Amino acid sequence: MLGPLGAACERGGPSNPPSDPIIGPALVFDDVHVFDGADDLGTTDVVVRDGVITSIGHVELAGAGPEVEVIDGRGKTLLPGLIDGHVHVSSISQLDQAAAFGVTTVLDMFMDEITMRAIVRQQAKGKLPDAAELRSSGTLATAPGGHGTEYGVEIPTVASPDEAAAWVAERVERGVNYIKIVDDDGHAAAVEFGNLDLATIEALIAGAHAHERLAVVHVSDLAAAKRSLRAGADGLAHVWFDAPADDEVLALLAERHAFVIATAVVMQTACADPRVREVAADARLAALIDPRELGGLLEMLDANAGARPCTHALTTIGQLDAAGIDLIAGTDIPNFGLPIGLAMHVELSLLVDAGLSPIAALRAATRTPADRFRMLDRGRIEPGARADLILVEGDPLRDIAATRELVGVWKAGAAIDLATRRQEIAKAIAAAEARRSAPPPPGSESGLVSDFEVDLSTAYGLAWEPATDEVAGGTSSVELSRVAGGMLGSEGALLIRGEVAAGTRAWAGANFFPSVERATVNLSSKRWLRFGARGTPGTHAVLLFGSSPMPTMASFELADAREWTLVEIDLEAIRAPSSELTFVFIGATTPGPFELRIDDVRIE
């Protein structure tokens, strides 16, 4: 162990006089490089007792008993647990995963309030020791038809300034930590939303402040950023992406001492920035995440490639940093398939690419969000602080990629079991490899799935079955039946008749499961999905689901309801999950009634 003089000389860290031998129980990080959330403390020792940091400086370990756990910090860096400043949480398993990646606190910006309250109760009882701690806004304040209403779940909206005070009071009564407000008409993303007027935004912010809650405003364009700041916003939930920063917005941010949650990773994932893939596929991170979830992100990046240009987001983040505006690292998971925890390491890398120094990027994920969201017990390494800590190999203050080399994570001084998680993920990776090398299911040799000559049965797997968004709380409807008269004079066809409800995540159609156990199958030897189709003119959908939660999407057009059309989908070209196919959906996703007949379905 380096003495105090050696430690101070090596990195300029604190120098304490020799001390008496330490008495346990205690956790000691010995000779470790420390970033305290704001500054580089150099090499020193850190002591934790009862979940709290009790001292920083030289510790005499000679004669220490077995009740003193000593962590060798040589060659390693100790950091405060990371704080993700923008997530959307739906389950405790997400919080477990966040902690495994070193994210020990998450700030949720829109979630179901019943789920929120259930998780908070479990936290308060100490029943979630391995999960990141949740803070949340609950639902968000948006106009009727505004952003947040498009997901098919009913939420309380705000139609006028007169409704603002009661809306905020209800959120506070339900236990939210801050208030999230939407100022976004959608034009920056080429969509259209209802939006709050200025008077209502001002009333919501005033209501938040009356209850001593921060008012965080979602924006996507520069004009909305300025409007919300003039209205009194404490911070912005995204960097805007329609234009770089100008002098006016920088002055408003400085005057308000407002913060900006960067969410660089969701911006760059939307445009398939190759840097997202590069970090996400890092073997050090991949060892901590289910391969199906990682595969879903990589498939999303493939799907987004060339779909839209990258925006001004990184340029604007660099401008904000240069102007001294408080930046907070946030990921906006699970949008665009981003996995919680892993996405934070991508965010840190992108912040550095935007112009932040590694130490500034780490402040944005530790001390700054802790201070700005009034969590003064964390985001720092100092006596009296909660011992939410991560230990990494190397020096992330020089190379931000070192955060991916996780040695250990501690939440309130208790270690998260990374070894078991890595073992479980290794087994999942091996199982995925086995699925990809499995033979195709019996009965698939000819390529025929169904010809509907007699009924809705299939050559292999399960018979066709109805599928709607009802499983996700939607109200779309559908009925399946065999009807006489198929393509090219065949005996029969499958009739899919239904109605797709309004909403961006609505669907109705028919599913085919190629396994009777509804398990994944390997159809990678097949290149084409072909079938005859006839029905309501317009665009219809094909979704192919694999082991990841994100489907591969394709579409086909029908011009004349009386004419059969041969639909051919190149599975290789659309990067379908053929080696791990779970089911195929054929139907509609456009709101309104529809009728669709399909015949002679083949995967060959």
Automatic annotation (TrEMBL):
InterPro entries, per database record: Amidohydro-rel, Metal-dep_hydrolase_composite, Metal_Hydrolase, Metallo-dep_Hydrolase
SUPFAM superfamilies reported in the protein's UniProt record: Composite domain of metallo-dependent hydrolases, Metallo-dependent hydrolases
Domain Amidohydrolase-related: 77-413
Species, as recorded: Enhygromyxa salina
Pfam families: Amidohydro_1 (PF01979)
Cited Gene3D superfamilies: Amidohydrolase (3.40.50.10910), Urease, subunit C, domain 1 (2.30.40.10)
Keyword Endoplasmic reticulum: no
Protein name: Amidohydrolase
Domain of life: Bacteria
UniProt-annotated stretches for the region Disordered: 1-21
Hydrolase as UniProt keyword: yes
UniProt KW keywords: Hydrolase
Coiled coil: none
UniProt-recorded Gene Ontology molecular function terms: hydrolase activity, acting on carbon-nitrogen (but not peptide) bonds
